[in-house]
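The protein record filed here:
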Amino acid sequence: MLNKVRRLSLSFPGATENIQWGNDRVFKVAGKMFLCMGTEPNSGFSFKADDDRFLELTDLPGIDPAPYLARARWVRVEPAECPLPYAELKPLVRRSYELVFARLTRKARRAILDQEPT
C-alpha cells in the first residue's frame, strides 16, 4: 500500500518528495507538507484531514491522531491495522494535498498549475 500512496502523492501537480528527519519521506507542494511516511516497508503514513473527518477517522482502528501534528488535524495510518482499503484512502490523501494547496498564495498556485502539461 505504501508504494501506491507514494505514487499517488507524486502524481499531484507540483508535488515533491524529500527525506527528512533522518528516515521519513516527506511529500510537499511549494514547500508545504501534505503527507509523510517512513522509509521502512511496513511503516505508516500521516496526512492532513478535514476538520469534520478528523474525529471520524481517528475512531477507526489503525488510524490515530498524528504525533506532533494532531492539533493541525493530521492523522496517522498504520496499514496493517487500518480497515480502510487503498480505494478509500486514496481520496483522503488527495484531499490532504488539496487542503495544503488551497492555503498557498495565489501566485504559488498559479505557478504550479502553469507548469503542468495540458
